[in-house]
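Long-time lurker. I teach an intro course on protein structure, and each term I like to show students one example going from raw sequence to a predicted 3D structure in token notation. This year I'd like something fresh instead of my usual example. Would anyone be willing to generate the tokens for the chain below so I can use it in lecture? Attribution to the forum is fine with me.
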Amino acid sequence: MLRRIVQLGIDFLKQFNIYVAANEDTIEERQDQITATRIFLVLFIVSLIGLVGYTSLSLQLTTIQIEYPSQSDFERLYSIYPDTLVCPCSQTSIQVDKFVNVTVSYHQVKFPTLFIL
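-- Reply from a regular --
Happy to contribute to a lecture. Here you go:
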């Protein structure tokens, strides 16, 4: 049974022709069409294998955007991805208490003696 199925498959492949013409072909034309079909199928299968192999082995990049990362997050990511890390910020934000120090100092106000009654 299995041998019969294999033999039918082989016979089908031997006579497979995708270039069938509308008119009656000679034996030589039919053989040329079958040969062209085989060449086409081999090139198609090789191209398909190459395409699948290329896409499965190609490097795929994933972009992840982190909104407002902390300094430690940025440094950690930079140590892992030094060549591909991008910071699209136009300016960096620094906390005000890091660069501004406000100290209140009161001075005694002295009035001139002209105003004393």
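Some talking points for your students: The radius of gyration is 41 Å. The helical segments are 2-15, 27-57, 71-80, 96-99.
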